[in-house]
Amino acid sequence: MSTVARITTISSRSTESFDSAVREGIERAHSTLRNISGAWVKEQTVECSDGSITSFNVVLEVTFVLDD
C-alpha cells in the first residue's frame, strides 16, 4: 500500500511573533484538513508602522495525507 499526500499553500498573520503565526496557521488548517503531517515555512515577512513591527506574516506549504 502506498501513501499519497497533497501540499497546499496558506498564509497566516500574528501580532506576536513568527512562531505564533506558524502555530495559528497550522491550527486553522487542522480545522479543515485531515492528516496534516508537516509544514514548510516558505516565506516570512513583517509589516511595520512608525518604526515598529505591527505584524508577522508567514507563507506555509502544508502537507497532508489523503484518505484511502
Structure description:
With 68 residues, this protein is of the alpha+beta class. It has one domain (5-65): Flavin-binding protein dodecin (Dodecin subunit-like, 2-Layer Sandwich). 19% of the residues lie in helices and 56% in strands. The chain has one helix and three strands. The chain has one helix at residues 18-30; strands at 5-14, 36-49, 52-65. It has a three-stranded antiparallel sheet with strand order 1-3-2, covered by helices on one side. The longest helix is centred in the middle third of the chain and has 13 residues, at 18-30. The radius of gyration is 14 Å and the shape is elongated. The termini are close together.
Secondary structure topology:
Layout: E1 5-14, H1 18-30, E2 36-49, E3 52-65
Antiparallel strand pairs: 1-3, 2-3
Based on CA atoms alone, the radius of gyration comes out at 14 Å
CATH superfamily: Flavin-binding protein dodecin
Let me know the largest β-sheet.
3 strands, antiparallel
Beta-strand residue percentage? over 45%
CATH topology: the name is Dodecin subunit-like
Number of helices: 1
Q: From the coordinates shown, what is the CATH architecture?
A: 2-Layer Sandwich
Regions with little confidence, pLDDT below 50 for 5+ residues: none
Beta strands, count: 3
Question: What would the average pLDDT be, to the nearest integer?
Answer: 95
By CATH reckoning, the class would read Alpha Beta
Shape: elongated
Give the end-to-end Cα distance, rounded to a whole number of Å. 10 Å
| Widest sheet, order of strands | 1-3-2
SS class? alpha+beta
Helix content: 10-25%
What is the domain tally?
1
Q: Element order, helices and strands?
A: EHEE
